[in-house]
Design a protein that fits this description.
Blueprint: E1 2-10, E2 20-27, E3 50-53, E4 58-64, E5 70-75, E6 81-88, H1 91-103, E7 110-112, E8 122-129, E9 150-156, H2 159-166, E10 172-178, E11 180-190, E12 197-201
Parallel strand pairs: 1-6, 2-7
Antiparallel strand pairs: 1-11, 2-10, 3-4, 4-9, 5-6, 8-9, 11-12
């Protein structure tokens, strides 16, 4: 068993600061979040988007989920693992991320598999944060989704990308951005694989 630290993701809400989400990528295996470089797909829970309008070529799905631990590993230039840990974002942080994303007019910043190339004709057309107090619920079919989850709908004008989505090549959203880490008292006990987790206080 391994005991891995958990860090809380944070951003500076000021537009003079470079932190926050600057792009949303369409990926095969969504890990939900990214810290400057693309998150690995080692997360146990996969949250896929769904085709919500085939004629209009629109997909909808979760972008960030509050308090969901995401496994991370750092490697050296030879590919050797130098550190393993988990990160998560809480509801207020996700709210700040959403506000800054739209305030800085980044809704058209999309890519495929974090390849660094912005797409043309693929963009966010809807965005909301699940909030039961405000009567804003998750779309039907996602089961129990926690308050604070960021959902988005993306218009996909590209026939090639749309065909790949329908074929199952791309299944979800993954964010790109810059976050700072804050240590938490939580640790994750990782058993044989990332799939077996329990949460403890250090």
């Amino acid at each position: 068993m391994k005991k891995l630290k958990v860090y809380k993701l944070q951003i500076n809400p000021s537009t003079d600061d470079s932190s926050g989400v600057d792009c949303i990528s369409i990926v095969n295996d969504p890990a939900i979040m990214k810290n400057f470089i693309a998150f690995s797909s080692d997360n146990t829970t996969k949250f896929k988007f769904a085709i919500t309008d085939e004629d209009q070529q629109i997909v909808t799905g979760p972008i960030m989920i509050p308090d969901l631990p995401i496994y991370r590993k750092d490697t050296d230039d030879k590919g050797n693992v130098t550190d393993e840990y988990y990160v998560l974002a809480d509801k207020p942080t996700i709210a700040s991320v959403i506000q800054k994303f739209f305030k800085t007019q980044r809704s058209a910043n999309t890519s495929l598999e974090h390849n660094g190339n912005l797409l043309n004709g693929v963009y966010i057309i809807e965005s909301f944060q699940v909030d039961s107090k405000r009567g804003i619920n998750a779309p039907t079919g996602y089961g129990t989704i926690p308050d604070g989850t960021w959902f988005g709908s993306m218009k996909v004008e590209s026939k090639q990308i749309w065909a790949a989505i329908k074929a199952g090549t791309f299944n979800g959203f993954s964010i790109e951005g810059l976050f700072t880490f804050e240590a938490t008292p939580q640790i994750v006990v990782q058993q044989s694989k990332v799939s077996a987790l329990s949460y403890l206080l250090s």
